[in-house]
Design a protein that fits this description.
It is a single chain. The chain is α/β, with parallel strands linked by helices. 42% of the residues lie in helices and 15% in strands. It has helices at 20-25, 36-41, 58-69, 80-85, 95-101, 120-136, 149-157, 161-164, 169-176, 178-190, 203-211, 214-229, 278-287, 294-301, 314-324, 341-344, 348-351, 359-369, 392-401, 423-432, 434-458, 461-475, 488-500, 546-559, and strands at 47-51, 107-111, 195-199, 237-242, 259-261, 304-306, 309-311, 374-377, 406-410, 415-419, 506-515, 518-526, 531-539, 573-582, 585-593. Strands 2-3-4-1-5 form a five-stranded parallel sheet, with helices on both faces. A five-stranded mixed sheet has the order 11-12-13-14-15. The longest helix has 25 residues, at 434-458.
Length: 595
């Protein structure tokens, strides 16, 4: 959808907005995905699990489904709300489908993405609060002339917030039956089997696995979902979204008519239902007069392959467009695409596994950073209950299903080739992967970090060169950088890791900073002194070229005024460092830059 609102005003971008009705009624730009409503509703089975990474628009799609199918409980048959909300959208062209299904079903829609907790009791309390809020939408069922006293009593327990959130045995038992209780009550009252929708169904299990209370949580979530999904008497359609297929929790056990559509599915019918296609991104950018920035957006936020389709990360594109529209002195073309992924992604899936990876796994990670693809054996039935931090195979599976990697080409015997999808995720790897080096070296690594940090803050090229040489000899092998292009990426990541390990000596550490007439490799400020540092990195073709390359890097900092990003009234001194690397040797040139 790329049109002006009824009032003639330009539609506003909506980063982070996940409610369909709010988007339409609030004059927000909406990328029309309503043509997929029929595909989802009439999929091969009436129980459909759709697996996509976080930030891929799953919650918005579920909100769209609810808005389209949910009936007017006070005036069944009235579809005036839907007629207005969906006016002009693709689904309205399918008049037969709309006539038969629009506004015709009770809908139970809940999201479990916020169910979290440090322990089981806390998480169970949050789940109880979620179910209580869901039940409150249907408080009128207590006055139903159709439901029996037993039905009403069972439903009333879902409105007892104190009990539901207590974590007691009564609460657990009630939660396990909560959805089937609500489904059956709606069926008997309306005479129509409800559509049951569960967004991010696997989040409580993921959080529980990370928090050490998985077995307890699976005994609540498993029965709660399975009882309702297995009931053909009270549920017409079951639609779920998530990241991983939870196979050992009993949720889908015994379901004869159950389908999964994932990032690895060869079925193209839903490949573009989540995320933005190139055409949709081009249309959005053109709508806001930003069409010339398509290639930049594509480099940073595209690259996912689902089925045969090329897909952009929708949340990141929308955030980027929103930021581009903000007033700035030099125009939107000067605004470097940020790495929004780092602000929303749970990097623990990387950092918890990294210390257990062997050298061959580290080489695969470096291959990914260098733009190559790697072969990975994927187990689609992996479950959160299987988490084992010593299992490298699980690490790769998680990277695939959570969006850090995307399919490059299909192999045989469950082996697929994957790659990093775009520049944004490569940045995420570049920073997060350094947790491995930090843990690998422990306190010993921190000692090198401190020496390097102090040399940077003192503006000393000689001391920095000596400290870096020591670190390179200790932590880098010839194999680490063999046949790696561009090789600067490796040293860039290593130096980022060193800086991150320097503790509280630095603040405002930034990588690939938009500054002056280009992008500075690394910028940072001291935490306790009014000193800023700008770093530019180069790789030399030989040891003899090290000095020349370091001078070239320093000259680049000066000529392109990379100090602009750190220059303000609080900074009293700015040091620029040009650093060149060749295998396990380096050269450093430094200069104090103008304020």
């Amino acid at each position: 959808m790329a049109a002006v609102s009824a009032a003639g005003k330009r539609l506003r971008p909506a980063p982070g907005k996940e409610n369909f009705r709010d988007l339409i009624e609030g004059g927000r730009y909406y990328v029309d995905k309503t043509q997929y409503l029929r595909t989802i509703f009439e999929y091969d089975s009436d129980r459909l699990l759709m697996l996509r990474p976080r930030r891929f628009g799953k919650t918005l799609m579920m909100s769209t489904i609810k808005s389209f199918f949910e009936m007017n409980y006070e005036n069944p048959g009235d579809t005036s709300v839907q007629q207005e909300l969906f006016k002009g959208l693709e689904v309205m062209k399918d008049t037969e489908f709309c006539r038969e299904h629009m506004g015709q079903y009770p809908v139970i829609s809940l999201t479990l993405k916020d169910t979290d907790g440090l322990d089981f009791r806390n998480a169970c309390g949050q789940l109880g609060d979620t179910i209580w809020r869901l039940a409150r939408r249907f408080t009128w069922l207590r006055n139903s002339m159709v439901l029996t006293a037993e039905d009403k009593e069972a439903f009333s327990m879902l409105l007892d917030r104190k009990m539901l959130c207590s974590g007691s045995n009564d609460a657990i038992t009630t939660l396990q039956s909560s959805l089937i209780t609500l489904c059956s009550a709606l069926f008997w009252h309306t005479g129509r089997k409800p559509v049951l929708m569960i967004d991010e169904y696997d989040v409580p299990l993921q959080k529980a696995a990370m928090g050490g209370y998985y077995e307890q949580m699976s005994q609540v979530i498993g029965p709660m979902l399975s009882k309702a999904l297995k009931s053909s008497d009270y549920v017409s359609r079951g639609i779920l979204t998530g990241c991983l297929r939870a196979t050992k929790e009993g949720i889908f056990t015994g379901l004869n008519n159950y389908s999964v559509n994932s990032v690895l599915s060869d079925d193209d019918s839903l490949s573009a239902a989540f995320g933005f296609t190139p055409e949709e991104v081009q249309s959005m950018l053109s709508y806001y007069g930003l069409g010339d920035l398509y290639d930049r957006a594509r480099a940073y936020y595209d690259g996912y392959r689902i089925g045969s389709r090329e897909i952009f990360c929708p949340r990141d594109v929308t955030c980027y467009v929103s930021d581009l529209l903000k007033p700035r002195a030099s125009g939107p073309e000067s605004f470097a695409p940020p790495a929004y992924w780092n602000n929303t992604s749970n990097s623990r899936i990387i950092t918890q596994y990294m210390p257990n990876l062997d050298n061959s796994q580290a080489i695969m990670l470096q291959d990914l950073l260098d733009g190559r693809s790697v072969g990975v054996r994927v187990h689609e039935d992996m479950s959160y209950g299987d988490f084992d931090l010593s299992d490298a195979g699980q690490f790769w599976n998680l990277l695939v299903y959570t969006g850090y990697l995307t399919l490059d080409k299909r192999g045989t015997d469950d082996v697929y080739c994957f790659r990093i999808p775009n520049a944004e995720i490569r940045k995420c790897f570049d920073s997060n992967i350094m947790a491995y080096y930090h843990k690998k070296g422990g306190a010993y690594f921190e000692n090198y970090s401190k020496a390097i940090a102090e040399a940077l803050l003192d503006g000393s090229a000689e001391r920095l060169s000596s400290a870096l040489d020591d670190a390179l000899l200790t932590f880098v092998s010839a194999r680490d950088v063999a046949c790696k292009e561009p090789k600067e990426n490796y040293y860039h990541g290593l130096l980022n890791g060193i800086i991150l390990s320097a503790g509280d000596l630095f603040k405002d550490h930034s990588s690939n900073t938009d500054s002056g007439d280009g992008y500075a490799d690394i910028t940072l400020r001291s935490a306790k002194h009014n000193v800023a540092v700008v770093i530019e990195l180069k790789y030399a073709a030989s040891r003899a070229e090290l000095k020349d390359k370091a001078r070239e890097a320093l000259r680049q900092i000066i000529d392109k005024d990379y100090a602009e990003a750190v220059r303000d009234d609080s900074v009293h001194r700015i040091f620029g460092f040009g650093i060149a690397f060749f295998h396990r040797k380096c050269a450093v040139e430094a200069a104090e830059l103008p304020l």
